[in-house]
Amino acid sequence: MNGNGDSQANGKKQSLRGRIRWDYLILFLLVPVFIILVITSPDKGKTAQHVAWEYFKEMALILPAVFIIMGLVSVWVEREFIVRFLGEESGIKGVILSFILGSIPMGPLYVAFPLASVLLKKGAKVSNIIIFLSAWACIKLPAELMEFQFLGWKFTLVRYVTTLVVVVALSEIIGRLFFKEGHYYAEEVETTLK
Question: Strand, coil or helix: what is 78?
Fold first, then answer.
């Protein structure tokens, strides 16, 4: 059996799992569930509709800006720059920069995923991307200030240091176990974005 399109150009055959657009499949499966929920339980259906609409509005306001930033990073930031500061040989400066990039911006975590995808395509090390996403999720500077105000400096410091140590250790373990050196994860990302 011969592969078609991109899989043939890459000399690879895609499995059925690789050819399925999981995002469309999940959406296709959720629509009937939503309709059944509205019919069988109108109150819960209305609540689900309201929550879905609010999330849609939030994403419609945030994601266009994210896509513009992704485009600018893709065009203006050279691959060599990303490789030097976040790539395989970046060392401790890559770890520190990943924490800084992940802890400063505001916004929901789903905003970070497209940015992480662009960084991976540009040659960032997988463990640095894991640190970036983890910092975005649990080490936000404004949140740290609120935590300090309500829970005190001792609690904030212990949680912050523990989070840093665990995130760095797990990112290195995940990077080494699941992504071997020389494995270009960006190729997989590109095929899922098409």
Answer: coil
